[in-house]
Amino acid sequence: MSTAANSPSLADDGVPGPEQDPHIWLEEARAPEALEWVTKENQRTIAALAGDARFEQLKAEALTILDSNDRIPFVSFRPDGLYNFWQDKQNPRGLVRRTSLESYRTEEPEWEIVLDVDKLAAQEEREWVYKGSTCLPPALRHCMIALSDGGKDATVLREFDMHTKSFVEGGFELEESQGGIQWLDHDTLLVSRNFSEELMTESEYPYTTRIWKRGQSIDDAQEIFRGEKTDVSAGAYLLRDNEATIHARVASRGLSFHERAYYVWKNDEWVELDLPRKAGPYGIVDGHLLFSTDVDWETTDGTFPADSLVAVDLEEWKADPNGARKVLVWAPGDRQTRESSAITGNSLFVGLLDNVRGRVLRFDFEDGRWTSTTVDLPDNASVSIAASSDETDQIMYSVADFLTPSTLYYSDGSDAPEVIKTSPAYFVPEGMEVEQHEAISKDGARIPYFIVKPKGMVLDGTTATLLTGYGGFQVSRLPTYLGTTGKLWLENGGAYVLGNMRGGGEFGPNWHQTAIRENKQRTWDDFIAIAEDMVARGFTSPEHLGIQGGSQGGLLVGTAFTQRPDLFNAAIVQIPLFDMLRYHLIGRGASWIGEYGDPRIPEQRAWIEGYSPYQKIVEGVEYPAPFLWASTADDRTHPAHARKGAAKLKALGQPYYYYEEMTGGHSGGVDNEQRAQLLALQYVYLMQRLMGESTSGED
């Protein structure tokens, strides 16, 4: 860290303040001077990249894919039909719509519009973005619709009737906030919201829950659970089975991003459950309550390994929550992990990763024991559970790989899954191939990665290659159809690489936990090792190697180009974490202390100082002209991270690009037009840096 950052005028907790950081003013997301700075930066970037002769074609190709009417309309099962949220050229903000299973099976289903978000936004003159719904089971007719103004995580909640297709006059309504609700019955909600500044955690999430009766002021609603202000978040919820029967009231406190304490309401008090901090309820199946654990769980019934599923008899648990006998349902094999799950009317379905390849197991309790069967789906592909029914055993699976478009399979539970929908191909895969390799990280760990490249590619280091990854929060990055990347990058001669670094979830919770907090540098080392391995194999060279990542992946890219600026010639830093010495003060950064550590604590600040990209940008080093972009409406990581990175590069006279969407939240654009423009800007940047200079003469 710089001398100034270690000066006596640091804040009492050691965190840099305005005297050490001249760009703190950019942390005010909508301050006039900050927005003026953003406007000028956007104009500069648009001139340099949108002026390239390749831009309009790339944008048009991206928009054609995003607006494609023959892409699979993924659905959810509800008692009154299959529901889908759809965005296209005519409906940029989207439609909530429904159809029947019979109609859905046809090539052109007949859709009934339930909510037109564009029409609503126009009527109310708001930048509404649809964020989903929470509905009263089992009918799922009455819902609380979540609407975000401009794409923020914070939402307004309003009661909606799915049958009349209208908001309920005088119905439940909650002002913009973090947090959610659960339906107790038609006239009662459990509400966990930011009721006041005093009832928000440091991470700006709620930590209390109230019971709210219809017609009652929310201010008069009875509080039923309160966590601690030091929690990440806390709240109470209902433990329901697939028939909508409520079996218990449960509450949880987020002690850190990865650790929770659970409680059950029994005998008029909250009783803490005897669980590891990284274990929790998983769902109700066949009269049993299931738990999952991310750590070894030692009990009187035996030790259950990390990533396993454990069951207790539901009635026995309700009678004695901490004394019910525990039984193993499933434990992972070598290089296996749970990735997704669904509980249907009669079974549990679990999506597994087996050496980063997908498969699905079905679990049932039969004749006094748990049994599992493998669902008949294609091998060597990414498999996810796309939809499932609470009432029946109807379920859908999505299957894809890098070069094969998504295929949607359907089963009613009695037969093997059948193909029901197939997505069209958006690029030509012929002449391309996929390989999986391993790099050796700094500490000797073997780190897998996939490369998608031209068949017979000459290994002379001249291929323009894009390396991406995530490596955090136990999130897995899998081989899924490349779509726009295939069209805009692979078809133009580039290669694509996906890294599976420690810190992610590709090989289970231990793969994640071995690279957090004091060991977070391992993630960055893994990423750099993959890049070095690619160069050593002749796949590419530093001159032709670019990197890209968003959010935690943006931090990954930031650490890579500041630690090894010689190894890359392009770096796309998307909606990133970047200033890690102040991240707990920016957006909802305090919620991620469990992943990175607390910079207010000297020992932990030392871990973070070793890699924080913002502080690692220094004078006298040539960086690969990074392209940083963010969203003004992102109230999660906050645009300040990207802004400050660009501002510091500018102050040092370093080349860079900066772009900021005024709406869109943490995911970028709110509609396909914005998304297509963002994609085109990024691929023009990559082409200019890795394939050739601008064809417009702009600099």
TrEMBL record:
Entry keyword annotation includes Repeat: no
Keywords for this protein: Hydrolase, Protease, Serine protease
Pfam families, alphabetized: Peptidase_S9, Peptidase_S9_N
Region of interest (Disordered), residue spans: 1-22
Peptidase S9A N-terminal domain ranges (all copies): 20-413
Record flagged with keyword Protease: yes
UniProt-listed InterPro entries: AB_hydrolase_fold, Pept_S9A_N, Peptidase_S9_cat, Peptidase_S9A, Prolyl_oligopep/macrocyclase
Domain Peptidase S9 prolyl oligopeptidase catalytic: 488-689
Protein name as catalogued: Prolyl oligopeptidase family serine peptidase
